[in-house]
């Protein structure tokens, strides 16, 4: 995948959270703190004409969802740094593809941006026909963070470590079950990638969302799942789930005490997360991309924003365009391989 670069040249669920209403209130307070306490100097308008009017960040998910909280916090930070109001605009629906398409078709002037995430950008185009072409219709600006997937089981599951888990499941093909938030969801692909990397054979039990999937793991009706830290860590912290490993190769600060699966079960290179980033339409001028990237670097240094990210289970991983594109391509290759190996198809496609 080669998403549009800085000039006109063309070149991976939202994160689902439990207790959405409660966390939305907490997130809203934290976002307000980001705006109030950023403490960053305004960029003088004399540095260039852009931006000379308000900007809009389209958030293709409902209010209160993790990508929404991230997008709003980024918008408030950019408002402070750029000296222009950045408005959050929720355009939810169709797994994030509706709002994503709005940005794909927006003018390439830097005034309409996308709170981008793995589902509609890295996953959906590999499984279905989307109204946009990821390889042609977007300019990557910056990666902001990653939410690791956590391998979790019911506390009564006999394995106490990831290594014991792998040994047990591998010795009993198709005996154990794993839950996902749906066939073709990012969590499904991550789970299949994990199973394939270790030669595990288990029965897939798809649900309509991470909440019902986790509910059955909590109840012991399904044996395990890999879901985002945002969704799983509240249950791990209160002892209702057992966290055995995380999907980021170097581990994660948002999952303290839980080892990286890459080292815990010896699968070097296993490095997948639910990413969040900033994109715009294809053809954004190079100076606009540079201006936004520099502003984003300042925003991401805010202590208040770091605290918000930690609270919603996202680790800051700031990468400007070139490194963001490398990450997107690596993710595309991994997910394409998983889909082909497991013959994953959505109903009706």
General description of the model:
With 349 residues, the chain is α/β, with parallel strands linked by helices. It folds into two domains: 20-147 and 273-342, Bordetella uptake gene, domain 1 (D-Maltodextrin-Binding Protein, domain 2), CATH 3.40.190.150; 148-264, Periplasmic binding protein-like II (D-Maltodextrin-Binding Protein, domain 2). The chain contains twelve helices and ten strands. It has helices spanning 20-37, 66-82, 97-104, 118-127, 162-170, 186-198, 210-218, 229-237, 261-264, 286-299, 303-311, 321-342; strands at 55-59, 86-90, 112-117, 138-153, 177-180, 203-206, 224-228, 242-246, 273-281, 315-320. Strands 1, 2, 3, 4, 5, 6, 7, 8, 9 and 10 form a ten-stranded mixed sheet that branches. The longest helix has 22 residues, at 321-342. It is globular, with a radius of gyration of 20 Å. This is Tripartite tricarboxylate transporter substrate binding protein. It holds the Pfam family TctC. The chain crosses the membrane at residues 25-44.
Descriptive key words:
BUG, Tripartite tricarboxylate transporter substrate binding protein, D-Maltodextrin-Binding Protein, domain 2, transmembrane helix, transmembrane, ten-stranded mixed β-sheet
Gap between N and C termini: 22 Å
Task: Indicate the radius of gyration in whole angstroms.
Answer: 20 Å
What is the domain total for the residues? 2
**CATH homology group of the largest domain:** Bordetella uptake gene, domain 1
**Judging by the overall fold, what is the CATH architecture of the largest domain?**
3-Layer(aba) Sandwich
Q: What is the number of helices?
A: 12
pLDDT < 50 runs, ≥5 residues: 6-26, 40-47
Order of helices and strands: HEHEHEHEHEHEHEHEHEHHEH
């Amino acid at each position: 995948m080669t998403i549009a670069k800085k000039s006109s040249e063309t070149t991976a669920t939202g994160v689902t959270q439990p207790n959405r209403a409660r966390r939305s209130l907490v997130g809203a307070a934290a976002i307000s703190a980001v705006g109030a306490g950023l403490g960053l100097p305004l960029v003088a308008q004399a540095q260039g004409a852009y931006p000379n009017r308000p900007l809009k960040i389209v958030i293709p998910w409902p209010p209160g969802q993790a990508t929404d909280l991230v997008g709003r916090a980024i918008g408030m930070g950019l408002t402070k740094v750029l000296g222009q109001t950045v408005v959050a605009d929720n355009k939810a629906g169709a797994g994030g593809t509706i709002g994503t398409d709005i940005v794909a078709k927006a003018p390439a002037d830097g005034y309409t941006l996308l709170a981008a995430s793995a589902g509609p950008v890295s996953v959906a185009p590999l499984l279905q026909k989307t109204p946009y072409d990821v390889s042609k219709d977007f300019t990557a600006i910056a990666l902001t963070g990653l939410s690791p997937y956590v391998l979790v089981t019911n506390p009564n599951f006999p394995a106490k470590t990831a290594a014991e888990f792998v040994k047990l499941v591998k010795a009993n093909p198709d005996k154990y079950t794993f839950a996902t938030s749906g066939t073709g969801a990012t969590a499904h692909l991550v789970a299949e990638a994990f199973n394939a990397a270790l030669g595990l054979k288990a029965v897939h039990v798809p649900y309509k969302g991470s909440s019902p999937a986790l509910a059955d793991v909590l109840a012991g009706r399904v044996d395990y799942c890999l879901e985002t830290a945002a969704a799983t860590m509240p249950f791990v912290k209160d002892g209702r789930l057992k966290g055995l490993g995380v999907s980021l190769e170097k581990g994660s600060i948002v999952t303290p005490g839980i080892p990286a699966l890459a080292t815990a079960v010896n699968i070097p290179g296993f490095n997948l997360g639910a990413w969040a980033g900033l994109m715009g339409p294809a053809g954004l001028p190079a100076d606009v991309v540079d201006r936004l990237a520099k502003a984003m670097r300042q925003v991401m240094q805010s202590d208040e924003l770091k605290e918000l990210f930690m609270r919603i289970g996202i680790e800051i991983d700031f990468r400007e365009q070139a490194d963001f594109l490398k990450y997107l391509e690596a993710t595309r290759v991994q997910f394409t391989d998983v889909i082909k190996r497991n013959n994953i198809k959505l109903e009706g496609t």
